[in-house]
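Entry 14. Structure prediction run on the chain below.
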Amino acid sequence: LVPGQDSEVLADGDEILDTRDVVALEDLLGRAIFLITEE
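Output returned:
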């Protein structure tokens, strides 16, 4: 299911069960800085 691109439409009462958390840009930058300073 791709927002705005998928031909499937959810019916009333349908549920999406397999979801992923959003990755925040701040978290990615923090990890990168941590890895760089660790060396």
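Residues 12 and 22 are 25 Å apart (CA to CA).
Filed with the rest of this week's runs.
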